[in-house]
Amino acid sequence: MNDKGTSIDTTALILLKHVATNARQNRNIRTQSMPGPIAAKRRGRGSEIDDIRVWTYGDDIRTIDRNSTARTGVPHVKTFREEREHTTLLLADFRPAMQFGTRRAFMSVAAAEILALSGWRATDAGGRVGLLAIGGTEPLLIRARPSDRGMLAVISALLKAHAFSLDLQSAEPVLSLDTVLRIAAKALPRGGTIVLASNLDDRGDQFEDAVRLVLHRCDLKIACISDAFERSAPAGIFPFETRNGVRGVRFVSNKNPGRKRREEMLQQIERLGARIVEFYSESDPEEQINALDELHGRHG
């Protein structure tokens, strides 16, 4: 693997805007005039209720509020306003277990690419994007901002956080994912979306409770990053050394029980209500568009 695969390329992440835009245009061609949960431009009255008032001549009868009408005996209608900008918080896992890869790139680099695509996708739809990156001794939080300016701030922070995590020599324990999810939930307005890119290592004892907490406030989408060696390691004995200097050997059998446990974990998280899709660190970002569509929904 070359140096490019071990560090984040800022220019490459910026250029992914065109990949995200082209993917959206292709989706629009395929799904033009089809119903879906998210539209590129609003042509209606909006869907957030602004007020409930007495019906007057000319009001659309479809907007009559049954509860208020029944309670007062006088027809009342709902008025609407445009939705607020949707807020997306990108959650980057740059902890030591993500700084590994046997083909093309570290899983941490692949995570940054997937998050950049997700961020450009969100801003392209008119939303706001922020970042929470973990890997150092303290998480790095960038508040959500709109447009290209917001994404450029996110990309700059991705570069900073990843470089810091690579240089970190501290033996201090890193944050578990359950703790990080709780931090993310507090940093995001209700109704927003958290996009987590991680191999889901060291989830913490309260991970499922943290997922439920997040889902009570917002959507949770997980890009589960995996390396080819983890998915299909040949049988054998493999020596290893951690960044803290711990050495050992790992035995891998032909049955690869780790893969089965991983699939069970993904299914369990999905049952909690989160959307989770597996991404391969050996694949270029352009090859991940179908998986990205699956993660965000064809119309999202």
Automatic annotation (TrEMBL):
Question: Do you know which InterPro entries this protein is assigned to?
Answer: DUF58
Residue limits of the DUF58 domain? 52-234
Please state what the protein is called: DUF58 domain-containing protein
Provide the species name: Phyllobacterium endophyticum
